[in-house]
Design a protein that fits this description.
By secondary structure, this protein is of the alpha+beta class. The chain contains two helices and three strands. One of its GO terms (molecular function) is ubiquitin-protein transferase activity.
Length: 70
Amino acid sequence: EEEEPPADFICPITTEVMRNPVMAADGHAYERSAIERWLATKSTSPMTGEELQHTCLADHHMLRRMIREW
């Protein structure tokens, strides 16, 4: 029986386990390709709907490592 992934490993946009997690200005982690597509047409947080202060994305190395170990 396959273990359910922790909720923090799931991208809120794709609802799949992230392979390349990044941190957005809202403090939430997203799959890079999914949040890049989102930000191509929007400047708001997918989680809160609030306007993002910036659209820079930071690699989330620790989360990526935790997902790989899982």
